[in-house]
Design brief:
alpha+beta, Double-stranded beta-helix, 12 strands, 2 domains, globular, single chain
Length: 347
């Protein structure tokens, strides 16, 4: 399956569907099950927005909206990733007997560190495959464009929460410290000192920040310059984010230029029915697929709807609350990306 061109004028059909049961009942009935055609009453073949009788958008399926150039870029990039086998996944929906395929987790997660509680970190795969992760940002920009275009109210809410997840300069300076040279107690003492300096002696504080950046991360000066230009044009403060080429530094808990904190990449995998649970409440996840494949439609059993996502298509859905999973069989090579904002970083 390949995309042959860019999308014509987009027409989205709004379809009202009453769920067959409550969220709690759906969890009992479907969670952990491999879904099949018996769970499907409607298979979407055109762009459609599925809403409840109360008017709540549950998912939006957009056909052939990503440009062919972006689809090609995504496919070339995704094929170079090193995937962790599904049998080693921490996700129960993927790690089951007979499971195939693999996964990659890009972006931010929360990680428990001794004596420091739970702290945000970039995943190890983000650091190991930073060039590929960076190339996927272009795909995410187009994904976000359609989110804003078709669901502006939901997108504004998610963007506002994402902007609140920007990291502080104090946190960034602490991240630059060599963990081997500072104990947890020393780091907390240093945090208090820097926070006090930021409030009482901002000029001295920014000298420390800038000296550290100029010495260790000269690439960031380009972003500071662009941010200054943007501030002058917009008349408001702009928070530049760091996206250093080696992946060791990215301030703020969103992927620069987007309202997503994390991207899951799945390769030729069938997921048992599940709900994500840790995503931003009220936010929606965005899913698109690449490759040459057949099958693997994503199904929302509570509504009896399946989405045959092909290259160039985009699904924006409530994966956080709604049970969803793939319908087999799946043949060929299918690599999907799911972009979302974790609730952890929007508080």
């Amino acid at each position: 399956m390949t995309q042959t061109g860019t999308a014509p004028t987009l027409t989205v059909k709004k379809v009202t569907i009453a769920p067959i049961c409550s969220l709690e009942e759906a969890r009992k009935r479907f969670s952990g099950r491999l879904l099949d055609d018996s769970h499907v009453k409607m298979r979407l073949t055109e762009s459609a927005q599925i809403v409840t009788p109360e008017g709540e958008t549950k998912f939006l399926f957009l056909k052939n909206v990503l440009p062919a150039e972006i689809v090609d870029l995504g496919w070339r990039t995704l094929r170079t990733l090193k995937f962790k086998g599904a049998q080693h996944s921490r996700r129960a929906a993927l790690n089951y007997e007979g499971s195939v395929g693999g996964e990659v987790l890009f972006g931010w997660i929360e990680f428990a560190k001794r004596a420091r509680g739970v702290v945000p970190i970039l995943t190890s795969q983000t650091r190991e495959m930073w060039p590929q992760f960076r190339m996927l940002w272009y795909v995410l920009y187009f994904v976000q464009h359609w989110y804003h275009k078709c669901l502006p109210e939901q997108a504004k809410l998610q963007m506002a929460r994402a902007e609140a997840a920007l990291g502080s300069l104090v946190g960034s300076v602490l991240d630059w410290l060599d963990p081997e040279t500072k104990t947890d107690t020393e780091r907390e003492e240093y945090r208090e000192l820097l926070s006090e300096m930021e409030q009482e002696s901002p000029d001295d504080f920014h000298k420390i920040v800038m000296s550290k950046i100029l010495i260790d991360h000269p690439q960031f000066t380009d972003q500071l310059y662009l941010a200054a230009q943007a501030e002058e044009a917009l008349g408001q403060q702009v928070h530049p984010q760091l996206g250093i080429a080696d992946g060791e530094l990215m301030a703020g808990y969103t992927i620069p230029g987007t309202m997503f904190s994390t991207v899951t990449v799945n390769r030729t995998a069938l997921f048992r029915s599940h709900e994500d649970g840790n995503n931003l409440p009220g936010g929606l996840a965005c899913l698109t697929a690449f490759g040459d494949f057949a099958g693997g439609d994503l199904c929302f059993p509570r509504f009896g709807v399946s989405c045959p996502i092909e290259p160039g298509d985009l699904l924006i859905g409530d994966n956080n609350l709604e049970q969803h999973g793939n319908i087999g069989p799946l043949s060929g090579e299918r690599i999907s990306i799911v972009a979302y904002m974790r609730d952890d970083f929007a508080k």
